[in-house]
Write a structure and sequence with these properties.
- Strands 1, 2, 4, 5, 6 and 7 form a six-stranded antiparallel sheet that branches.
- Helix 4 runs antiparallel to helix 5 and helix 7 runs antiparallel to helix 8.
- This protein folds into four domains: about 120 residues, Immunoglobulin-like; about 160 residues, Immunoglobulin-like; about 110 residues, Immunoglobulin-like; about 110 residues.
- The longest helix has 29 residues.
- By secondary structure, the chain is an alpha+beta fold.
Length: about 625
């Protein structure tokens, strides 16, 4: 089956066929609200051209995509004279998302083609409202509707579904609000429920993974997809989180109604069984949500408050515990408590009373998040030998539950600091000449023991009967001298190979993913009732390892986007669409149009074809 990408091209009428040419095209002139589509500007010239500057496009959001370039040449012979013409075609792609209903216009664009300005034609676009039905609902629920600046709030979306969904894409404008930060977050993946995880496609390109479960909606059993994203307010105020929407396709079961689904550039929408399923687009929205963000109180705020919101605790360790004055002491501070720690930082240690004047302190470091805690390291150097401990540290934080500031305190750490004795001229002369406690005099004095003469002991005289040249001429000596550098070279080469291999384990796993997948597919028993489930799981693990993805279900659309990003033709991933469709048909309908043996053979061929392409 072949993917169909239909573009409506509007050629400029004033351009000759043999000269520079500019074309514009769109995926469709009839689109749905909040549904992105491709807008292209294709330029053919003797050389590569730079990207045009787009004018304002009211009613659309515009996201530039990577351009595509191709070269072609034409050889002609006229009256014995050879002429070769080289044409460079550059296609500039833009992802447009309509934000208003009605008829919108993509304005004319001025394109500079090697010094000559060409103007494209305006293109009208009709934007329609997708259909809404019962049985499919979307909810957005924050963990709290009132919080403080810097206090994390977990946003939870629940999408209730009572029928088969073919394609979907979320629009979550809250994730683009500049008054909030959104730390990285992925749920913990349960390997036993791996097939129930689903990567959520969204216009904001946020990394979202949902878990599938069962629920009841208005007394009816439905499937629910639940995914989360943390939000941290940066400013106080009452904020209206805009409505979240999902545009999806469902089967059109209305008799005699032709399909209203238009062709997608990434889907030929032919089913695995060779027939076309009539679908229609629907839109589901979650109502806007309001949250109240309160400012942190300035009353009783510590001077060294660093912005930590939420109850926390600290633990401190030091190494070594016995040092001389000025020796480095590595101080490790572990901060625990708040759920999201990436943005947290400690107050300057120089502001803590117990350390000021007692230690020299190294510069600040950002710290690292490890196992739900954030670890900071500082270097201390004792200023004098009378220090007997590293005092307890007090880190201020704002307790949002109590609405007041508090301190996280550590236990003091006892240490032993030795005084450093200065080396004097008397130490260099030796204690035999001057008593240890003798007073220092600037005048010359007569020594009671006379002049301390220098004597050469016979034991330190070099042997005259030994010739180094004879020793180096021995083969045994040469072999012994070559052994240490040989061992060193071997150790360096082994270490370099080991570090290169372990620098990115995912790369090695990706290289072996294809062969391991084929071996596992060959071991699948086709007469087993869960053979298709096994094939599906094996392919999912293969694609996750091959493209070094995070755990989750890889859909055909995900695979298509990955190959498109690598500028690989879509033919390499087409077989996976049929295989995924067969596995899903077996899962939901209980049977598929092909046997497990045929699907396994198709999977082996698809993996081999994809490996050759990559």
């Amino acid at each position: 089956m072949k993917n169909l990408f239909i573009l409506l091209f509007f050629c400029l009428p004033f351009i000759p066929a043999y000269a520079q040419k500019v074309e514009v095209g769109i995926e469709s002139q009839d689109v749905y609200l909040n549904e992105p589509f491709i807008f292209q500007i294709r330029v053919s010239a003797d050389e590569e051209v730079s990207a045009p500057t787009l004018p304002p496009m009211p009613g659309f959001t515009v996201v530039p995509q990577p351009p595509q370039r191709s070269h072609s040449s034409q050889l002609s012979i006229i009256n014995g004279r050879r002429t070769q013409t080289i044409t460079v075609t550059t296609t500039f792609n833009y992802l447009l998302t309509p934000q208003k209903l009605g008829t919108l216009t993509i304005p004319s664009v001025d394109v500079n083609v090697l010094g000559s300005v060409k103007r494209t034609q305006p293109i009208p676009v009709t934007v329609r409202q997708p259909e809404k039905i019962d049985g499919i609902a979307l909810q957005l629920q924050p963990s709290t509707r009132e919080c403080y600046v810097g206090e994390p709030v977990m946003l939870t979306w629940r999408w209730y579904i009572d029928r088969q969904i073919y394609q979907f894409a979320f629009n979550l404008p809250v994730l683009t609000m500049p008054d909030f930060s959104f730390p990285e977050y992925l749920p913990e993946i349960d390997p036993r429920r791996q097939r129930q995880y689903q990567r959520i496609a969204n216009h904001q390109n946020a990394d979202l993974i949902a878990i599938q479960s069962n629920a009841r909606l208005k007394g009816k059993a439905v499937t629910v997809l639940t995914f989360e994203k943390p939000l941290i307010p940066l400013k106080p105020g009452t904020w209206n989180l805009p409505e979240s929407t999902v545009l999806c396709e469902i089967e059109d079961t209305r008799a005699g109604r032709p399909s209203t689904r238009r062709r997608s550039p990434f889907d030929d929408f032919d089913s695995f069984f060779g027939r076309r399923t009539n679908t229609r687009k629907i839109s589901v929205s979650a109502p806007p949500v309001t949250i109240n963000v309160k400012a942190l109180p300035t009353e009783n705020q510590p001077d060294n408050f660093s912005g930590i919101v939420g109850a926390c605790s600290i633990s401190v360790t030091a190494e070594p515990l016995e040092v001389n004055v000025g020796d480095p002491i590595i101080l490790t501070i572990t901060l625990a408590g708040p759920r999201f720690l990436d943005h947290l930082k400690l107050p300057p240690l120089e502001t803590l009373p117990g350390l000021t004047g007692q230690f020299k302190i190294s510069n600040e470091e950002p710290g690292q998040v490890q196992n739900g805690t954030k670890v900071f390291q500082r270097t201390l150097r004792a200023n004098h030998h009378e220090i007997s401990e590293i005092p307890a540290l007090e880190i201020p934080f704002f307790n949002s539950q109590k609405g007041a500031y508090d301190f996280a305190r550590s236990a003091p750490i006892p240490i032993k600091v030795e005084q450093v004795r200065q080396v004097t001229l008397l130490d260099a002369q030796g204690s035999a000449l001057v008593a240890k406690d003798a007073p220092v005099s600037r005048e010359l004095q007569i020594s009671d023991v006379g002049i301390a003469h220098n004597y050469d002991a016979a034991a330190i005289l070099s042997a005259r009967n030994h010739d180094p040249r004879l020793w180096l001429a021995s083969p045994t000596t040469r072999s012994l001298l070559l052994i240490p550098p040989s061992i060193w070279v071997l150790a360096v080469l082994s270490t370099a190979w080991f570090r290169r291999r372990n620098a990115n384990p995912g790369v090695w796993a990706a290289r072996k993913a294809g062969s391991q997948c084929r071996k596992r597919l060959q071991k699948v028993r086709t007469d087993s009732p869960d053979a298709l489930d096994q094939i599906f799981d094996i392919l999912q693990e293969y694609l996750t390892a091959r493209f070094q993805l995070k755990p989750g279900v890889v859909t055909y659309t995900d695979l298509s986007n990955l190959l498109q990003a690598r500028k690989i033709t879509q033919e390499a991933c087409l077989p996976f669409k049929d295989i995924f469709a067969a596995c899903e048909a077996s899962r939901f309908a209980g049977a598929s149009g092909q046997s497990a043996g045929e699907i396994r053979a198709a999977a082996l061929e698809a993996v081999q074809k994809l490996e050759r392409t990559l």
